[in-house]
Amino acid sequence: MKGRSLKLREAHKSGGAASFCSVLWDLRAEHLLTSSSNDLSICIHDPLLPSNSPQILRHHRDGVTALALSPNSTCLASGSIDHSVKLYKFPGGEFQTNVTRFTLPIRVISFNRSGSILAAAGDDEGIKLINTIDGSIARVLKGHKGSVTGLAFDPNGEYLASVDSIGTVMQWELHSGTALHILKGIAPDTGSDLSVLNVLGWSPDGETLAVPGLKNDVVMYDRDTAEKLFSLRGDHVQPICFLSWSPNGKYMATAGLDRQILIWDIDRRQDIDRQKFDDRICCMAWKPHGNALAVIDVTGKYGVWESAVPSSMKSPTEGVPGLQSKNSNGLLLFDEDEQELSASGSLSDLGEDSHGESEPPSRKRLRKKSTYDEDLDEDINDDLLTSLPKVESRKKASRSHKESLDNGNEGLRSTTSLRLKMQDAFQPGATPVQPEKRRFLCYNMLGSITTIEHDGYSHIEIDFHDTGSGPRVPAMTDYFGFTMASLNEHGSVFANPCKGEKNMSTLMYRPFSTWANNSEWSMRFDQEEVKVVALGSAWVAAVTSLNFLRIFTDGGLQRYVISLDGPVVTASGFKDELAVVTHASHCLPSNDQMLEFRVFNISNGTQPLKGHLPLTPGSCLTWFGFSEEGQLSSYDSKGVLRVFTSQFGGSWLPLFSASKEKSEENYWVAGLNTNKLFCVVCKAPDLFPPVMPKPVLTLLDLSFPLASSDLGAETLENEFILKNMHLSQIQQRIEEMEAAGLDTTSLDDEAFNVETALDRCILRLIASCCNGDKLVRATELVKLLALEKSVKGAIKLVTALKLPNLAERFNNILEERLLNETSRSAVHDASYITPNVVMSKTLTSSHSSEPSQPVIPSPSPQLSSPFFTKKGKLQEGAKVGIEKVEQSQTATVEKNIGKVNNLAGIKSKEDSKNQGEASSIGEVKNVAGNLRPANPFAKSSSNQEKSSLFDAIKKMKKTPDETSKR
Question: Widest CA span of the chain, in angstroms?
Fold first, then answer.
């Protein structure tokens, strides 16, 4: 079984020594929490944006050894070497109280299923059961001889299992506080190494207890009898130091002292996947939604193993058992009106005295939310033990479990219907806040804006990549605390969020050059804060927390205020266009973001584009903007770059995938053009570069994620699709410029060059098809060639490869094309006979002293019109009648003839040497004698039509003598 490499990110400093670290998810998988016995802090990470700085909680005086979240993720508990157990509100992190203290370090803490009890234990003698409602100690369970390192509440609410450092497992009855089973020496003896702790865990259905065994295995014990059921033994070569059941109980993850993780299929009792690490993994946690496993090692580095269970197998979160324990009161944590969920025990209004210890709080009645209210009429302040369930027989428990499946499934549906986290707003090209470090507020293809906090204020600098062309902008002292910015060639815009009631959100624009003094301006927002800013030509945009899109002129005039459909994610500007991304709806159950985009044309007051923004499953948007040519583009956290195109009614094309590149690198996007992606390469697991040293832009080739071809010609196929896409983009720009009445000559030349390069690519593909015996595909390709000379080159190629049947087909295709072009030309001539008769008198009188000359010279017989017909300029054909137009058309044709004659890769000398095609090619030359090369876009057909008009006029001017000579 092939192992995969998972890169870990540092969360806590190890100090050079191994430590026990913890990791866990919250209920919605919106936060990932980590701690270390060598670190005073608790880190709350955003799993969608791991590069962002985590939220830090520092309330312990020594290393944090244990973390636990209440079942509804509203209360966080932590234990420490400083002997204290602390409680916090979650996810805000507000410290609440020291709920208890020990005389020795704490090693483990755990909530029961309802959240009404918190168990804590460590090097002290005894396990404390703490009532989370009032902070009182409900019971102390004594019996272990060594330090208690593992605790696990039975999901059915009847038992508590514990294990110590010498390998003894005890099963306690919660109602009576007695030890029902004592299993000595069944787990490894961890000795004095505090980075290795014995653990144990109940299966999600509560029927099985898993304990690390003495033979590098995991042993399963029966719930009621504590009899050994079976064991999981595989390729661990050293004892198991941590285990974790999947949410549905179908799988288990085990970490060993041999520095590897195995994923087990419980039903098959064998390992199905594995991962090797540089250091020992000391804690793991399955993601509540999806298929991922969070891990952390003894050095304080963490990561998320995506697709830990092979995708071909059932998801680890599919079919989670629905359990409802009898004491599941649904007590609210903290204040009832602050919480949306109703499934947890609580801590209520606990304060802290001057010594950091909890005072007896005032007790108040809390409303109970439960399907079992009729069984729980007593006051919640009654003795906790009276509400603990009594032990039932195994048969009765099983029967009760079956009877509660319907209620359990209903609870599961309620859990899975919880709203998952939507991506926060971000500024393209910005990096996260790093304490005492300079960061980017904006980084794009033009330059960068950086900031660093110093003495309570921030210092902002603007730098341009091309120092010779960009203006010199003096550094700025930031008194507002700007957190977002945007930059273009005209100026820069800054904004900050609200900071309390007095400090309102501020938007400020600074132009780089202006004819008037004091052209800088700012706006302030009351009860509203700016989320994203963008710049364009002569406009400034800001999207706020009220879902307002506010558009200002560069002079500060408030021009438009538009309501958006949802919360903003990001925005970007390019000339007259502003693109905004918003949330279209809540996340899918798979935690996929549902985003949509809009493109506004500010100068015209229109919205030309709107649609859904595609993302890779399980990813979030990390960059959004325009290419140098103005193509809308996006980049997600899975490393896929997409570009919007007008093809197929408007589609997003994947033009780059980081998975095709080096796995140990991440790419921080700065911009792109037609062929290249401009990015900063970051060594994994870093997702963004530091400001110093100055990042170096790397150019990567754009390429479609193509399937493996049976020809082995993925490079050629990729070039073929890219050039076709480029042609489509040029054609769209030509049409837009024509509609605006602008000159398209330069774009016509560019399109012609791209088409000749595309022909060369197609010829190489035809050669590959012939060598791979894919003759039907070769025939399809030859029909896509635009130039007659290219088709002749294909005929010569297949003749040299001794494929006479294919050469005959190619000849037929060429002849058919030329006949079609000839008939089309004749139709155009006939359609202009009437206007030619009317105009001939004027032309004859104005040129009576000049001999009759052909207006358009006969081109080389190697040229032909493209196989596919482009849009013609029929209206321009009727405007002929002045000599300047005639001369212009002649010059354009001569220019294009020169370009085609110089086409690389197809030599005219070789055409005459090939005897195998002499007769057919001769016929083609005779037919093509009076045809000119057509540009692949509209110019081509319009020139053809104009030449036909001139020919008809000249024919009518010929003298009777010339006619008789003919």
Answer: 128
